[in-house]
Amino acid sequence: MSAHIASGRWVVWATFFVGAMFQVMPLPELAEVWRPDWLVLVMIYWAMALPHRYSVLTAFTLGLFLDVLLGATLGVRALALSLVVYIVVLHSMRFRNFPRWQQSLMVASLIFLYHFVIFWAQYAIVGDSEFVIDLFLPSISCVAVWWWLFWVLRNLRRSYGVK
Q: How distant, in Å, are the alpha carbons of 46, 59, 83, 98 from that of 76?
């Protein structure tokens, strides 16, 4: 394995780590309900940019890590993130050709699906969740974050030659 390919993988896993740290970063109580799903957004970007390398298995692993990190029911976020990334990988070429505003709407719908699957799994399977509209507010905040995050991750990918 060449050092060039290894450095590219290092950059991707570093962005996953930073996304996980942003995911658990303390926020004021008012802003907590609007918290973007940083790790999910980073995973969506890499699944869209490099679907042959970062796909459902990576998403499942990161979802399990996120479940452990947040102290949630094991496998709930892994299931939700795997489903979202499967859709992204399936339509990655189409998503890449969308303009940014359409990409951000697709990301909002994927984040909505992510939170719906988490709610469904906790309510229907585990039975310890109740529906509140605040569950879907991160879908709105992720639209604004996507524009900036896409630009940052694309520039990182190009400057480090991640392939």
A: 21, 12, 11, 30
| Cβ–Cβ under 8 Å, residues 42 and 16 | yes
Structure tokens at 161: 């030659």
What are the start-end ranges of the E strands in 12-163? Answer: none
Q: For the beta carbon of residue 20, count every other beta carbon within 10 angstroms.
A: 18
Q: Looking at the chain, how many residues does it have? A: 163
Residue 113, judged by CB atoms within 10 A of its CB (0-12, 13-18, 19+), counts as middle
Total-model pTM: 0.92
Distance between the two ends of the chain, CA-based, in angstroms? 13
Amino acid letter, residue 79: L
Q: Which domain holds residue 11?
A: 3-160
The predicted-structure confidence for 117-141, as pLDDT tens digits, reads as follows 998 888 877 776 677 778 888 999 9
As for how many domains the chain has, the answer is: 1
One-letter amino acid of 92: S
**Distance between CA atoms of residues 114 and 96, nearest Å:** 20
pLDDT per residue as tens digits for the range 18-57: 999 999 999 898 888 899 999 999 999 999 999 999 999 9
Place of tokens 């694309």: 154
Tokens at 22, concatenated: 């942003």
